[in-house]
Each structure stands twice: as structure tokens, then as C-alpha cells.
Amino acid sequence: xxxxxxFLLGLLVVAAALVxxxxxxxxxxxxxxxxxxxxxxxxxxxxxxxxxxLPAKVAGLAKRLEALxxxxxxxLIDTAENRLVLKKGGEVVREAVVSCGSGGILKEPNGKRSxxxxxxxxxxxxxxxxxxxxxxxxxxxxxxxxxxxxxVFEDRIAEGELGEYALGFGKGYFIHGxxxxxxxxxxxxxxCVRVGDDDLKSVFQSVxxxxxxxxx
Length: 216
What we know:
With 216 residues, the chain is α+β, with helices and mostly antiparallel strands. The protein is built from three helices and 13 strands; from the N terminus they run H-E-E-E-E-E-E-E-E-H-E-E-E-E-H-E.
């Protein structure tokens, strides 16, 4: 008899534990749902608040952008898209398809020197304006062509390869014409910016020494 009572008592304990577990699970599930709903509501409230502040933020950013926009004429060059834009403040004066640096690397056969053919990024200025410019070929030009580096300066001069106009912006880099107009729109240069004849003439005649050049 005593054994049967103990069996019943154990059965009741198990049943009670099972009921308690089910109630606890239901409570926790309901709690999770309420918590998720509360978080969603809070996020919605935060989004609404942010939305109300958004016009003021946009206006503030617009003012900052306007303050950073150069006054007068300036040249903007996108090296990834190979695009040149001549702008006056926020107004587009002229757009052109160009060719910028290839990003290629050339190493000297003896391994002492190497060159990376990138168009430099940053802010520059027109430092020189040249008509009918000639190119003084650097050492890498001869190495690339598999020719000996000349000892006489005159042997470095190449005429007609830079077109009719060139705008120098420092360290041997130029915005200049090209004999290879079919390659405009591609990253194929050694770092200079090649421009078609008509676009180059328009830009050359429009800008003066000191004109800002922004390259990215």
C-alpha cells in the first residue's frame, strides 16, 4: 500500500512539473513577442524622429557642400570613369571623355627601379599652358620600348605626341592631346590625362594659370 502511495505522489509531482513547464514556456514566448513588438515600436518612433530631423540635416550638408564647391572655373577628373568636366561653380561648362592612368607597373630589367602608371589623385592647379608641346621622354619610356636610354638630351625629345595643347599640373603630369583617340574612355596612359582635340582646345582656351584641378 505504501508503495502505491509513493507511486501516486511521484506521478503528481511529474504532472505538476510538466504543467509548470508548459506555463513557463507560454509566459516566456508571450514575453518575447511583447519585447519584439516593443523594440519594433521604439524603432518606428526613432525612425519617425529621424525623419523629422532629416530635412535639417540635408540642408546642413547642402550648405557644407556649397561652401566646399570651388568658385569660378575648375576642372574635375574622374579617373575611374575617364571623364573630365569643366565647371563654373555648380554649372557644367564642358564634358569630355578622356584616358587616365592604366595602373600598370614597369620594372627596370636590373630591378633597381620601378614605375606605377597612375594618374595622381588630389587637388592640383594649372601650372603651365603649352601650345604645340613636345614630350621629353623619361627613362621608363625607353625601357618600356626595349631601347637604350639616350645620353644626349635631344634624343629624348618627341614631337607631335601630346597634341596641340597641354596643361601642366606638376611633376611631369599633363592634360594633353592624343594620337590615339580610339582609346579615349579607357585607362591606358602612363599617368597623364589624354583628351580629344576639340574638347582639349575648349578647356585650354577657357582656363588660366592657377585654375584648380580636382582628380579622384
